[in-house]
Specification:
heterodimer, A: 15 helices, B: D-Maltodextrin-Binding Protein, domain 2, 22 helices, 45% helix, 12% strand
């Protein structure tokens, strides 16, 4: 393929863009590499601030400590349950709300849309929300982390806009062939809407995965902690965790593994382990995330 | 900020509503007995799974009670606590900080424990002093919580840790005990090493104390007779640190050291982690420290620089040229465990705590010959690593202790770490043995809940810390002290003073 010749000013701009974007990418990626390097580096070097990008005196004692001695797996399990179950429920409520609202023939459509817009703009506040969750007996359950987000109005409007863009003639053809509303939705509309379904699912999943504040407010027992709450707690309590180990001995009289486990190392290992699931999933969903941004910008 | 203020305001309203209702709720005082009830206990954030910890079955075996443990979050703990209580959660026990307890006392949500303690908590009552019970009672004599007393009355918790290998190389062989000796040491180190090392890294503000700690070394202010933010002068008047006659001298000394490059240039920006990092990496010769910094940095330096116990020195409270040295006693109520009026198992909660206190040594320290031995001096010497593996987390499950007995048991918990023990022995135990007269009684250790104190004191302390840092940085000077004191009064200083003076008058 031949590259079109560029004017010198264009070349200059291209070069600048490359340098700028490279620097920007480095700003984003370097802290991650630094934290990952700390998580598997020798404790004395971590405490001494001697780790930058490459791990030194590689050890997995800190990772082992996080995996075996803390509730990492339980918190990961909770987060996965909330994310998967929540995304399914949210998509169900979003689609079943957006589809009827996308039909001009729906009676009272304007009022219903107005109610959604109103509740999107005016949030009752955390205290009333907490009272509702408490009164319904949902505190300290998975439902407390799912039901308040069963539908996010903005996502619903994005899906509604997409449905409105589907030619009516296609649905009419389905009706003529004897399909009912549910059949038309599930067999005609949804297969034609996979990009928006994938995108909005991803938006919901990211919202559930990253939800810290509500998980912190609505759960109290350690068995219900999600990964985000676990991370914050670990960062805050790194010093206390360390204090209770048989630490603080001179190198000659204690196993190297305990010298390796340090406050900074514990925090770095917890952060590194918690982003591994996202890193594994990201390549498969990246395309939809970009689509989502585009859809949002055009239709939102 | 505005949003946060609104949220807090709404929470306060909700809380008040609950409190009004809670006052009418009477709790049952009937004992159901071990095995017949599952107690619920809400505590601070631990960082580990508090229900799956090895301590849970140990406590269950001893007491016979099954307990479900809940945690407050690490962030917004106070707000979450208020929400939980306001929404009517029926925890049996609340393990609280003193400030949290004071807030709940004001709401009327806590159950008076006098009768229950008389009936089921005799060991709890006997294990703590009258002063402590008075501090945990309201004006009508209702006991509204049980105490966990800080287990060491005279700890020099803020000291300095010194790299003796570097100090010796600079021709200094002794750890200074006076302010002049300390200054001379810093100057000599600066002269010898120039900018190769940070001479003194600091401040070290214990993460656990957060904003409640000072931004300058207390072992330096001790030489000026300044030992706390609130003090009582010789005439019995309550005075703030900045009103002390030698406060100008203190800040001048700190500013001089900073100006001469004897202190870390990043002093104002340093955090607990950065001070630890600077000392542990060998960049600093001396660091303002507590036991935690020693525990983190000594193993690191011993591994990376091959240092042994003799290569570390510890500077305790310094004396002024006139022999002045004052350091405040660490006597204080560390935690309070309270029972909500809504609790349906109040009698069992008290009974559970009483059984724990009866088995205090076993639960917190372990079994002789397995977890510890008694040394020649009769002190408890932990057996490592089983002590840390099987009793290391017991601190989290402490609600109340027999205070005097626990004072003899607690040092073993420090002793499990060689580095902590080295620091504790040098800074605290030797000071206690050689200079016990330096410790000043904390006159406000048992002060009950006070509204203005709770509302303004953290702001006042932050303002004090900021002012000292500004003087050290050279942006303000001693001549600004009157202006600072005027601002201090506007921040509620006089209101707090009145409360403290009123309390002092009752003693």
């Amino acid at each position: 393929m031949r590259i079109k010749p560029q004017y010198s000013s264009e070349r200059g701009f291209t070069l600048f863009a490359y340098v700028f974007m490279t620097l920007l990418a480095l700003v984003c990626i370097l802290p991650c590499i630094h934290v990952a390097a700390k998580s598997i580096s020798g404790g004395t070097l971590v405490v001494g601030g001697q780790i930058f990008l490459f791990p030194k005196q590689i050890q997995f004692d800190t990772m082992g400590y996080i995996l075996k001695k803390t509730a990492f797996f339980n918190c990961l399990k909770n987060t996965i349950i909330v994310t998967v179950l929540g995304t399914f429920i949210s998509m169900f409520t979003t689609i079943t709300t957006a589809y009827p609202l996308s039909k001009p023939s729906l009676r009272g459509r304007r009022v219903i849309v107005l109610l959604y817009v109103f509740s999107m703009v005016f949030f009752g506040g955390i205290v009333p929300a907490y009272m509702v969750v408490n009164t319904l007996g949902l505190l300290d359950t998975y439902w407390a982390l799912i039901l308040p987000f069963a539908i996010i109005q903005f996502n619903m409007f994005v899906v509604k806009s997409y449905f409105e863009g589907i030619p009516e003639s296609i649905e009419e053809a389905a009706y003529i062939d004897g399909a009912g509303d549910v059949q038309t939705l599930t067999m005609i509309v949804l297969p034609m809407s996979t990009p928006i379904i994938a995108t909005v699912s991803l938006l919901y999943a990211v919202n559930y995965w990253n939800n810290y504040f509500h998980a912190m407010m609505y759960t109290s027992s350690s068995s219900m902690k999600t990964l985000q709450v676990y991370l914050y707690d670990t960062i805050e309590n790194g010093q206390a965790l360390l204090e209770n180990l048989y630490g603080g001995a001179f190198g000659s009289t204690v196993g190297q593994s305990l010298v390796n486990i340090t406050t900074g190392g514990i925090v770095a290992a917890a952060v590194t382990l918690s982003i591994i699931p996202i890193i594994l999933v990201y390549p498969f969903v990246q395309r939809y995330l970009i689509q989502g941004i585009t859809i949002g910008s055009v239709k939102g | 900020m505005k949003k946060l203020a609104i949220v807090l305001m709404v929470m306060t309203c909700a809380f008040s509503l609950f409190a009004a209702g809670a006052k009418e709720t009477a709790a049952t005082g009937e004992l159901k007995g071990p095995g017949k009830v599952t107690l619920t206990r809400l505590g601070y954030n631990a960082g580990f799974d508090v229900n799956k910890n090895y301590m849970v079955p140990i406590i269950e075996d001893v007491t016979g009670y099954k307990v479900e443990y809940f945690e407050l979050p690490a962030q917004n703990a106070d707000e979450k606590l208020m929400m939980e209580v306001a929404s009517g959660k029926e925890y049996d026990l609340l393990n609280l900080s003193v400030d949290q307890w004071r807030t709940l006392v004001g709401s009327g949500a806590l159950l008076p424990l006098n009768d229950l303690l008389e009936k089921y908590g005799k060991d709890i009552l006997a294990g703590n002093s009258k002063e402590t019970w008075a501090a945990l009672s309201d004006d009508n004599g209702n006991i509204l919580g049980v105490p966990y007393m800080y287990p060491y009355d005279t700890e020099v918790s803020n000291f300095m840790i010194v790299r003796m290998d570097l100090v010796r190389a600079a021709g200094i062989n002794e750890i200074p005990t006076t302010l002049d000796g300390f200054y001379d040491m810093l100057v000599q180190l600066k002269r010898y090493y120039g900018d190769r090392y940070i001479i003194l890294a600091g401040p070290y503000r214990n993460a656990a104390n957060g904003s409640n700690s000072l931004s300058f070394p207390q072992i330096v202010s001790s030489a000026f007779g300044i030992y706390n933010d609130w003090m009582v002068d010789e005439k019995g008047n309550v005075q703030y640190m900045s009103e002390h006659e030698r406060f100008p001298e203190l800040v001048s000394f700190l500013a001089k050291c900073a100006r001469e490059g004897l202190f870390d240039p990043d002093w104002a920006a340093n955090t607990t982690s950065s001070v630890t990092e600077k000392f542990a990496s060998g960049k600093a010769i001396i660091a303002s420290s507590d036991r935690n910094l020693a525990q983190a940095s000594i193993p690191a330096l011993s591994t990376s620089h091959g240092l042994g116990p003799d290569d570390f020195g510890f500077i305790s409270a310094l004396e002024g040229a006139d022999g002045t040295c004052k350091y405040m006693e660490s006597t204080s109520i560390g935690k309070v465990t309270a029972i909500l009026k809504k609790s349906k198992n109040a009698a069992d909660a008290v009974n559970w705590m009483n059984t724990k206190i009866q088995n205090q040594l076993y639960i917190n320290i372990g079994v002789e010959g397995i977890h510890f031995n008694y040394d020649a001096a009769g002190e408890i010497a932990p057996i490592n690593p089983i002590f840390a593996d099987e009793r290391g987390d017991s601190f989290y499950y402490l609600d109340v202790t027999d205070a005097d007995v626990f004072k003899t048991e607690w040092p073993s918990r420090i002793r499990k770490s060689e580095a902590q023990w080295l620091a504790f022995d040098a800074a605290t135990m030797k000071t206690n043995a050689n200079r016990p007269q330096i410790f000043v009684e904390n006159k406000f250790a048992y002060m009950p809940a006070a509204e203005s104190f709770a509302r303004y004191n953290t702001t006042l302390l932050n303002s004090l810390n900021d002012f000292v840092l500004q003087v050290m940085a050279g942006t303000r000077g001693v001549s600004d002290i009157p202006t600072y004191i005027r601002d201090w009064k506007n921040l509620g200083g006089e209101d707090v003073r009145k409360e403290l003076a009123a309390y002092l008058a009752t003693k």
